[in-house]
Amino acid sequence: MREGWYPIAACDDLPAAHIYQTQLCDEPLAVWRAADGHVNVWQDRCPHRGVRFSIGTVHANELRCRYHAWRFGSGSGACTFVPAHPDRKPADAIRATAYPSVERAGLVWTRLAGDQAAPPVLLPSTVPMRAMPVNRAEDAVVAAISAAEMPGVHLFVQPVSAGRTVIRGLAEDAALLGEHDDALERLRRTLESA
Amino acid sequence: MLLYEWAALPECYAVRLLAAILEVPLTLRHVDYYPAHEHESDAFLTLNPLGTLPVLDTGETILLDWLGALTYLAARHDPERRWLPLEHTDRMASLLEWLSVARALSESAGAARLHDSIGQEADIAGCRAKAHALLRHLERHLWFGERAGCSWLLQNEHPTIADLAVFVNVILCEEGGVERLDYPAVRRWTDRVKQIPGFVVTSGVFPAATLEVKQGPGA
Fold first, then answer.
1. How many domains does chain A have?
2. What's the DSSP call for residue A181?
3. Which of B37, B109, B133, B190 has its CA 20 to 30 A from that of B169?
4. B147–chain A Cβ distance below 8 A for any pair
């Protein structure tokens, strides 16, 4: 699996009790903020029967799977409660696959492999732009944004799958979010019509 | 009031949903759309020559279109005019635009779902592409709406019939092979719709997390 840190959400994408759904390098992810503030980035798959966590529900510091209501704790991802066996402590091995997360510059970053520390994002004060999913491969998108002239924005890519990429950006001026979004829409149209 | 419906159609769900929220009692009359094609029978075509579902018999009139039925219910049974802001010209214009989007979603995402579930004929690639174009439009609108402090489709403190009309085909679209993965603001908005007091589910729609979970041992 690919190493390195990637932005996969904006911090604003995670209101209370919401489970955000995304994908990084073919790995489906369920992302949610616990009541204590911790951002969980989990493989979007219950270890019990494989149902997507992202159709489940959040209850304070636990995520409850929609299928059999098994509950998993924020942070470790360890199973905390199995309703069919209310008097038994779940085995320690029953865990959601949890990836590390950091919040930097209004974006949520994660890595699927490797042990590098999260890089600092050294930028003047910025606001996250609207994520722009593009149905094109990462290298084509990277080439297009390198060639694009967009002063006042800092762009990153989230490789989703072989032919899909999300462009994430930080804007220096919140008043220009609409214009920047228009520019990214044009960039997407160009890429997808090529 | 009598609703002729086939429960699995999003358009029928929309009418049941608004009636539930407004606490309007409905008598349901099952029309076997599939497999019996009862909507193509002489008896049904006498009621609705268009052959579409649902049909709402209000006792005064027969409404042949789901968006007409939503408009009727809101106009007659919401005295506070929250669901249909008739006094606000600009909001009504915007509402009609979103009802057009709702119909376009029905003809794209909805048609893809009927193709995948009951084998109804459709240009499946075209339907899915059109659905994604509409979802991209919806995503952008809702994302910028959130920044402006707006939770709903209209610049309105309260949801309107447009939210419900768009919601029903969005929340079931994955059954037609149209993923919502790329539409995070749309997913947040569907969570908000599910929290409207009186909200009811249908097959394929999960409720919001409102029930307190009993604590397990040691928790």
1. 2
2. H
3. B37
4. yes
